[in-house]
Amino acid sequence: MAAKVFLVGAGPGDPELLTVKAMRLLGEAGIVLHDSLVDGRILALAGKAELIDVGKRCGRKSTAQSTINELLVACARTGQMVVRLKGGDPMIFGRATEEVRALEAAGFECEVVPGVTAAVAAAASLKLSLTRRQVARTVHFLTGHGAEGGMPAHDFAALARAGGTLVIYMGGQTVGGLAAHFIEAGLAPETPAVAVENVSLETERRFFGTVATLPRMVGEAKPEGAVLLVIGVAVGEAGCVMDVLEGAESD
């Protein structure tokens, strides 16, 4: 029996943002069960390992979590080294706890290797501090969709009162509903907001606006990649910085 299964964070997409440990484990793995959004250049680091796509994507055909759990246990029983490769960080909206518990119930030890989560990668790309003294003392990580792909059951009023910075994962398809709920809950429509598609990749796109205008901007852009939303006063300063940089490049 394999002594251990590794749940590894693949980061936001750019292979250079992988941890050293993640790269080593991929090179040693016999089987890699990976999310669909993991970049092909990262999968290439797995060498001769068997690659199994167990991706879960909103609005598309996905592998059921129960099936993923069963596959992990079955792969562990082969005696090979198994890596479960998850986009971003395994412990943020990755349902990692369910997989850890399934492995433990079957008698397998599991180690979690953290990765760079999309929120941090977006902050770095935008040169935007998610926290800032007197402006954003808190950060809230939220999911952009709920059960069956519908609106998430957030306490929008509490989030609007809390202030700080809101980071919404997987929010591209529900940005309109999210904006409407936040405005109805008391968040000022002119609150700065940005949508970032394909964070850290060459195809990354940014759309700066406000809570009120962002849904239209995202809708017109028709993003095909993963979309992260960032809302808060601090975002406005990032937008100003990007405007200055883009103006300098055009001169």
Description:
The protein is α/β, with parallel strands linked by helices. It has two domains: 4-113, Tetrapyrrole methylase, N-terminal domain (Cobalt-precorrin-4 Transmethylase, domain 1), CATH 3.40.1010; 118-250, Methyltransferase, Cobalt-precorrin-4 Transmethylase, Domain 2 (2-Layer Sandwich). Helix content is 35%, strand content 20%. It is built from nine helices and ten strands. A five-stranded parallel beta sheet has the order 3-2-4-1-5, sandwiched between helices. Strand 6 (139-143), helix 6 and strand 7 form a beta-alpha-beta unit. The longest helix has 18 residues, at 233-250. It is elongated, with a radius of gyration of 19 Å. The N and C termini lie far apart (63 Å). The relative contact order is 0.14.
